Fold each of these.
Amino acid sequence: MDLKEQILAYLGQIEATTLATSDEVEQFRIAWLGRKGILKDTMAAFKEAPNEQKRELGQLVNQLKKAAELCISSGAQGAETIDQEDNASHDWTRPDGGAPLGAHHPLSVVRRDIIGILERMGFVVTEGPEIEDDWHVFSGLNFPAEHPARDMQDTFFVDRDPDMLLRTHTSSVQVREMERRDPPMRIVMPGRVFRNEAISARAHCMFHQIEGLYIDEGVSFADLKQTLLRFAQEFFGPDTKIRLRPSYFPFTEPSAEVDVYWGLKTEVDKRITKGTGWLEILGCGMVDPAVLEASGIDSRKYSGFAFGMGVERITMLKYQIGDLRAFFESDLRFLDQFQGEY
Ligand code: DAH
């Protein structure tokens, strides 16, 4: 084999070589570029070659050197990553950065917390249909025929049957349960409700309520007040104060709205409480005897209280969320903030 053939054979050999680890790279470097390496010998042989071949052979020797260097540098790059993954040098106890985890929706977290508190007080969860008839949403709850809540503006009606509609509140489930059960009953009724409202930061056509109902002999307004105080202190903290303001609902008498004391420490406090320090969290009252009778419960023997709250509203208070629409947009930048809320 003359020198030219020898160099071409070397080039073929290098081309067929891939160096995986840093050990392999180092061995290759010594064998090819080292003091007693192949390139040294080739150079020596080149010097001996006849002058008329020098031009061509010189170019080939150069090519050989470049090929060996390239093989080393690309091998070194690959070896770096492989070395990092090498079992011997890998720290298996190092945290892996974690797979991205999902999180519970803030409305689910708050709904679960609210229900949990009421369950510990003896309330039992029941649910009812979202598509309801007029009786369970309005008539059975003492809504007069001309009540504005029945208006087309507020209620989604089912086209095919004007008696059917999307429930505008979970109070409809109270009626179903009073018809179905005999007192005593102590139930909590979560669910979705629908109102024909323009979607904005403060209103939506679909939202969630949680309704409570307690019927027994001798249930009084004091029981209602104590239940709600206890609930607010469990949910918002042990020092929470509440106040009851007289209000009106067709199905309760007397009726009240309940505020929690939020404070006036920050500008945000002032803004969201409109300067009063108090925030409304729910509506409540003593079930109107006419409502008990309409569902077949003897109002001389039994009395009861009811309350209903908006889950979005309470969630917005708890997490200081300014825009109701965020709950329904499924934007991960919003939802990821609740990772910690198991
Ligand atoms: N259903 C009422 C609403 O949607 C809330 C409510 C008020 C429910 C008083 C009650 C209650 O059970 O007693 O605005």
Amino acid sequence: MNSAIIVGIGAALPSKCVKNSELPRELNTSDEWIFQRTGIKQRYLATEMETTASLATEAAKNALLHAQISAQEVDLIIVATATGDYIFPATATLVQRDLKITQGAAFDVGAVCSGFIFALDVADSFIKSGKSQCALVIGAETFSRILDWSDRSTCVLFGDGAGAVVLKSWADQNYGIRSCKIYSDGKFADHLMTSGGVSTNREVGFVKMQGREVFRYAVEKFQESLEELLKDNSLKIEDIDLLVPHQANSRIINKLIEISGIDEKKVLITVEKHANTSAASIPLALNEVKDDIFLMKNVVLLSMGAGFTWGSALINFDYRGNK
Ligand code: ACO
């Protein structure tokens, strides 16, 4: 059985960056409140011309360029998103069209903030089973379109953007995705959801969140899945080269650092730059370290999102076998 290795990383951000101090005055919020409670300093917000598909396509192009792979090699495109351009067709098919790819399959995965790890797990399975040789896994969101811009308790938390990775089939199983696990528990569905939907009230709705509950479960699920990943792979916390958690809130990440005992220098935090970009947050964070990550053997990804959904991945990026 072959393994799936990551050979390229790319990202795309909307052209408009909004700092905390530039948020509408009517929100009655402050840079101090937002930064202290969340670690967020700014977010990128899509303009009218920018959509989830356009950001996803740009991120995919950048990832292919980074991998030095032609779009024509790609036989699978998975877009993780909760904010697709249309109800249908899938945003992944729009990316496929815009990359002029006419082979293989393209579809979306909906697991909200855990979407990237869910999509990675699906692509990993396709590659391991031999159904795909080269896959694009993209996390892309325009959450700004489903925020209630009069609700300061939610609208300050999110941003827009896209990140993508290129996966290739590789003969040596010691490299690439070593393990990937995904979970959900629908009894928590109402803790974080939109107030509308096609089949309920025919509306898109806005993000509604029970912030404190989400905070508590995020810490719990991060820690649970980290412990399981370490046990399954016979690793100690010191063996991790880099931990890339979903970027929702730096206080959630700091709590994980405290409980797990991981060296904080090994934990990537990018939420101050992008805010919470849901499914895009992990690949956007990976893009920030793409010059160094291909020397790392034990990179751990952790996610948690609405549903609740959560997941983990252990990746050996060093497929070139650097000493
Ligand atoms: N600016 C100023 N004041 C605010 C703001 C704001 N943007 N938002 C809320 N407040 C006020 C509230 O009105 C309240 O005022 P009151 O005491 O006069 O009633 C006060 O701040 C405290 O409100 P809480 O909601 O209790 O604030 P809390 O300390 O719980 O922080 C937060 C809220 C930051 C959302 C926190 O619950 C949290 O971090 N939750 C985690 C959720 C998260 O990050 N979700 C992201 C999506 S989920 C995911 O990706 C996993």
